[in-house]
Amino acid sequence: METTGTVRRLTAERMRDALERLVTERDVWVSTAHPDHGPHQVPLWFLWDGRAVWMCTSATSVTARNVRKEPRVRLALPDTFDVVLLQGEAECFPDQEVPKDAAEAFAGKFGWDPRAEEGSFLYVRVVPKTVRAWRGEPELRGRVIMRDGTWLA
User: Fold this and answer.
1) What is the number of structural domains in the chain?
2) Does any domain span residue 137?
3) How many CB atoms lie within 10 A of CB 144?
4) Mean pLDDT throughout 63-84?
5) Which pLDDT tens digit goes with each residue over 92-127?
6) Which CATH number fits the domain that encloses residue 107?
7) 103 near 56, Cβ under 8 Å?
8) Which of 106, 8, 130 is closest to 56 using CA atoms?
9) Pyridoxamine 5'-phosphate oxidase N-terminal domain: from which residue to which, for each copy (predicted)?
10) Is the separation of the CB atoms in 87 and 73 below 8 Å?
11) How far is the C-alpha of 122 from the C-alpha of 46, rounded, in Å?
12) Side-chain half-sphere of 134: how many Cα atoms within 13 Å?
């Protein structure tokens, strides 16, 4: 693992950087599991509303099936050096029952509105309970920046 030039950030700096990435990034890796079928991981577009991550997937997808059976999920931003991992429970909203402000913000970010599509879609909302953030080995210690839904900085 490359650590040259890595300066250990304070918890407040990690939180600031993680929140900035949650606002600006487009994709998140979503890890779910089904009691009978095991783990599943896919990348999805996401929206951060300041408190929760919103994603959308086909109502018949493996991800949708899994979160209905087992709502505990893990999310990861797609950078293996500047790591941001979130853990929480999924709350599901059929496309015709999703809060209007969330659906419109999602459509505004991506230029795509699942509610207007032919098939059924499921919006998935995850309020993080735990967030970990680190850049390289020097930041492994102290990587938890949210615990029990409370930011530590």
Assistant:
1) 1
2) yes
3) 15
4) 96
5) 999 999 999 999 999 999 999 999 999 999 999 999
6) 2.30.110.10
7) no
8) 106
9) 24-134
10) yes
11) 13
12) 13
